Every structure is written in C-alpha cells, then in structure tokens.
Prior knowledge:
- By secondary structure, the chain is mainly beta.
- It is built from 2 helices and 10 strands.
Amino acid sequence: MLITTEEGQGPPEIKDKIVRESFFELSEKQINISSIKLAESGSGIIIRLYESSGSPVKTLLHVHPQILALYPERAEVTLMEIFERRIPFAGSTALLDFTPYEIKTLIFADRVTLDL
C-alpha cells in the first residue's frame, strides 16, 4: 500500500510524507501473488501464490502485523479452500517451499474457520 499526499493535504500523521506499507511481502521475485480475496466462508482472507520460473525455491512471506492480529490462524488450503496444514510463523514471517510452477493457496482466518 502506498499513501501519498499533496503538501498540506491529508491527516497530520501522513501530511507531507510518503508511507510505504505492504500487507504481504515476498523475498523471492519468482514467487508472485495472483489474488487476494475474501474466503468463501466469509471469515478470512485467501491469498494465492505461484512459482513462475520453473525452479524449486524457498521464499519468506512477511505479513503485516494488523493482518496477523485480525486473523490468528494461518494455513495452507486446497484451491477449494479445504484445510491442508497450518503454516508456522516466526513473528510475522513464514518460510514457504515451492516446487516448479507450484500454486499455493493460503488462508488467514479465525479458529472457527480452520476447525473443519
């Protein structure tokens, strides 16, 4: 998310400043976020990522602390959003392994959504 304001415009906390924040950041360029959407259950956020270079890769996924505070459960799910496994985080970062051209679907949700 990039917020810019014209000089003298906007709330005091961002007036005359450029604020750069991302909800999701990846360490490797060959991993792309293809979509961010509301979960089909209506409770949580889905992000879909894919590996684009045809090579296996590990990437760090950094998630904004506000997302983690709103959605304390994080998991990998199928394309149909069926729970597969929890994703361990160290603070606001997770390590993800991708095979060539792999697509991963992740959910950030509350406990109720993941207890299937």
